[in-house]
UniProtKB/TrEMBL annotation:
Its cofactor is pyridoxal 5'-phosphate. The modification N6-(pyridoxal phosphate)lysine is found at residue 26. The keyword Oxidoreductase does not apply. Residues 3-220 form the Alanine racemase N-terminal domain. The lineage of its organism: Bacteria, Pseudomonadati, Bacteroidota, Sphingobacteriia, Sphingobacteriales. Keywords: Pyridoxal phosphate. SUPFAM superfamilies: PLP-binding barrel. PANTHER family: PROLINE SYNTHETASE CO-TRANSCRIBED BACTERIAL HOMOLOG PROTEIN (PTHR10146), PYRIDOXAL PHOSPHATE HOMEOSTASIS PROTEIN (PTHR10146:SF14). Belongs to the pyridoxal phosphate-binding protein YggS/PROSC family. Coiled coil: none annotated. This is Pyridoxal phosphate homeostasis protein. HAMAP family: PLP_homeostasis (MF_02087).
């Protein structure tokens, strides 16, 4: 199947469940992204700052760019003018820097807090206590140019569907608790970004509102990056 066919298939499948499709275009060329764009896709996810900046400059202005990977504070300034949603916020320090750069650009930038749900050592994210601590802090209360619109999580890379299900359920429980405790009056706090090519079906069953699908749409990624861009 072509990229356009894949795109249409996944888009209609997830949207029929009321879920947004983030087409993860990391390592894909501008031409490839345009194929998906011309098939109707407008939301693209990238995990390297420089790669996203380069692509944004070359592609149509109505694309929503989502930064889905780990973000270093010193790179925020490059994406602050245009980024639509930052999925991987995992510290107060990063949130403060996003706020500072958003203010410079006279914007409010939407963010998701990345929560650590996987049974792996390598993944970034806050644990449940750290999420609560951050939201309770005076420093967070001062930030007027960021808006936290939900949570993001990455499940363990395993074939054990029961385990993946439990991890997504735990994130949903945390989300519901936080919604009541901190965002009861804010309709904008409504997003759960979980699910990738291998586990998006489970994610949607367990309450995901945005799935991040790459290889199922574009095919297996080549290891080489779009442009020289080693440290994100
Ligand atoms: C690469 C990536 C994805 C997409 O992964 P696929 O398995 O290709 O669908 C989703 N989320 C994050 C954070 C990623 O880095």
């Amino acid at each position: 199947m072509s990229i356009a066919d894949n795109l249409k298939k996944y888009k209609s499948e997830v949207e029929s469940d009321g879920v947004k499709l983030i087409a993860v275009s990391k390592t894909q060329t501008v031409e490839t992204i345009l194929e998906a764009y011309n098939a109707g896709q407008r939301i693209f996810g990238e995990n390297h700052v420089q790669e996203m900046v380069d692509k944004q400059a070359e592609l149509p202005a109505d694309i929503e760019w989502h930064l889905i990977g780990h973000l270093q504070s010193n790179k925020v300034k490059y994406i602050a003018p245009f980024v639509k949603l930052i999925h991987g916020v995992d510290s107060l320090k990063l949130l403060q820097e996003i706020n500072k750069q958003a203010l410079k650009n006279k914007r409010v930038i939407d963010c998701l807090l990345q929560v650590y749900i996987a049974d792996e050592d390598t993944k970034f994210g806050l644990d449940f206590d750290e999420v609560i601590e951050l939201l309770r802090s005076d420093e967070y209360a001062e930030l007027k140019n960021i808006r936290i619109v939900g949570l993001m999580g990455i499940a363990t890379n395993t074939k054990n569907e029961k385990q993946i299900t439990v991890e997504f359920q735990e994130l949903k429980v945390l989300f519901d608790g936080i919604k009541v405790s901190f965002f009861r009056k804010e309709d904008s706090f409504k997003e759960i970004s979980t699910g990738m090519s291998a586990d998006y079906k489970i994610a949607i069953e367990e309450g995901s509102t945005m799935v991040r699908i790459g290889s199922a749409i574009f095919g297996k990624r080549i290891i080489k990056h779009f442009k020289a861009d080693s440290a994100n």
